[in-house]
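Thread: Histone domain-containing protein, structure

OP (GT): Posting the sequence first so everyone is looking at the same thing. Length is 54 residues per the record. Can we get the structure tokens written out before standup tomorrow? I want them in the notebook alongside the other entries.
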Amino acid sequence: LRFQSTAAEVPQEVSGAYLIETLEDSNFHTIHAKPVAILLKDMQPTRHISGERA
């Protein structure tokens, strides 16, 4: 089985984009709650909106 060298980069790119988007959305929720840091509870609305299960 042969793969192109770029095929190994795809999962890294996708997971990186997912993580960045999740943290950006969580930061948005955190700013509106006015705490000092992003907590797990701040990520839960983001994950719920995107249809993820905990």
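GT: Both are above now. Quick notes for whoever picks this up: The helical segments are 9-33, 40-49. The mean pLDDT is 81.
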